[in-house]
Amino acid sequence: MGVRSLTGRLFSRLILYLGAGLLLAGILLVRFAGARAPIAIVILAVLLAAVALLGAVPFRRMNRRFDELATSADALARGDQGVRVPVDAHDELALMARALNDVASRYEEKFRELKAERDASEAVLANLPQGLALLTRDLTIKHANPRFWSMVGLERPRGARLPAARQPVLEEMAEDSIRRGRSVTRDVALYVEEKREYEVTVTPIGAGAEGTPEAWLLSVEDLRPEKAMAALRREFVANASHELKTPLTSIRGYAETLLTGGLEDEENRARFVETIRAQAARLEALVEDLLELADLERPDAALDVKDWDLGQLVREMAGTFEELAGRRGLRVELDARPGIRARVDRAKIDLALRNLLDNAIKYTDVGTVTARIERTASAIRISVTDTGRGIDPEHIPRLFERFYRVDRGRSRALGGTGLGLSIVKHAVSLHGGRVGVESRVGEGSSFWFEIPPDGPHLHS
Ligand code: ADP
Fold it and tell me: Which of 32-46, 83-97, 260-274, 375-389 has the lowest mean pLDDT?
């Protein structure tokens, strides 16, 4: 419906009344003024025209201001919070304009606050590990976070209904919760590319006028990380127990042999005692490595980071292995000039380097072990290269796993625990670095780690 101008109507009515008055005055004049009546009528007509002309100006201005007010109120009603009416007078219209401007600013402010709140909630929802979807009674998905869409393998369709996800178990659970009016939880398997286990909960939320829920929250939680962690823990405990049990059994066996006549066996008793000592030393090494690993894996493991000359650090550590290498007929070479500095936890870098040097000497029969430090484009790389037996490529991907050994017997015979490389990996990843190895069977291996020079970044 078109808008009719209020001031226009007022003005035309005024002119109408004035015209009517003039007509009446004209009739009275003709009646009583006789011959001078035409002159008086002309004067009255001129007067009327003048009044109309003069009156039109303020009326037009008022008309414009009314217009502005009306257009702005209309824009505000449509949601345009930026709208403002010019306030250039001190009358009632200006008062109305000011009030309208106030409403618009408050509206704008509230809108900003709400938007900030909504953005924050969306950010929280978007980063939750669970998939969440808000459902209506007819299973329309009113809102869902990106994790939910990826869990059910859908491309965020607008106004989708739960059946679009083609996961009947989810529909079943939602219908169950809607029917019973309470929360439902179950461990279920969903199939999107592959089968995965989830814990799904449907909870009624937001009671309506009659106390009936208006929406249902569907939450889908991936059970894999927890299950995988539990499996890892079980495996670790089993491995560690096995490793501890072997020397303990051996110690007990030899001790019993000594007690049941072995002490009198002059020829062998020293060998029995030596075996007990060697097994006890193995136990000690194992417990030490386990403690070191536990220390590195502590979630609150704090790094004591300082600026160190890593070239110097490599020299010093390699120096401590010269004697051991010499005894095994090996040479230790250095390609480590001082002056390459980085912010590191020295004890942990020492630990990593010590394990690599120890392995290189342990698994090399002839030749040299070279400790090297170099700067790459983005990191500092420390490597230990040997001329040992090398490692078959099939073992490489698992070398840094706890208790993984290529040759169990040889590792044990050399006092290995199977934990050295996982200690290296942990110590390096605490610095935000990475580890690696290149090896050729019969030629030797080169184990290396890289760390960022400007201190540990958050490790993933
Ligand atoms: P271990 O205590 O048995 O040495 P590590 O975790 O240090 O345990 O190493 C795991 C396995 O990797 C070793 O058992 C060995 O088979 C292999 N390995 C490590 N370093 C070398 C190397 N320099 N040359 C050949 N094999 C190596």
Answer: 32-46
H/E stretch holding 184 reads strand 184-192
Q: What is the pTM of this model?
A: 0.58
Question: Angle at CA 107, nearest 5°, toward 104 and 112?
Answer: 125
Q: Convert the pLDDT of each residue in 358-372 to its tens digit.
A: 999 999 999 999 999
pLDDT exceeds cutoff 60 at 144? yes
CA 291 from chain centre, in angstroms, equals 31
In the prediction, which pLDDT does 338 show? Answer: 85
- Could you give all domains of the chain from N- to C-terminal order, each with its CATH number? 2-111 (no CATH), 129-222 (3.30.450.20), 225-299 (1.10.287.130), 302-460 (3.30.565.10)
4 pLDDT higher than 70: no
Q: Give per-residue pLDDT as tens, 313-328.
A: 999 999 999 999 999 9
Task: From the CA of 408, give the closest atom in ligand 1.
Answer: 14
The atom number, within ligand 1, closest to the CA of 407 reads 16
Q: Is the pLDDT of residue 140 over 60?
A: yes
Q: How far apart are CA 40 and CA 224, in angstroms?
A: 104
Question: Which DSSP helix (H) or strand (E) runs through 283?
Answer: helix 269-297
Three-class SS state of 233: helix
Indicate the helix (H) or strand (E) that contains 117. Answer: helix 92-127
- Residue tagged 């909870």 (tokens): 203
Q: Which residues line ligand 1 (CB under 6 A)?
A: 355, 359-360, 363, 386, 388-389, 391, 399, 404-407, 411, 416-421, 445
Nearest ligand 1 atom, CA 402: 6
**φ/ψ (deg, to 5) at 186:** -155, 150
Residue 236 carries which DSSP code?
H
Helices (H) and strands (E) in the chain, counts: 12, 12
List residues bridging with 143 in a β-sheet.
134
Tell me how far apart the alpha carbons of residues 420 and 166 are, in angstroms, rounded to a whole number.
48
Residue 75 has pLDDT above 80, yes or no: yes
Query: What's the pLDDT at 270?
Result: 94
C-beta separation of 101 from 82 below 8 A: no
- Rounded CA-CA distance 74/145 in Å is 36
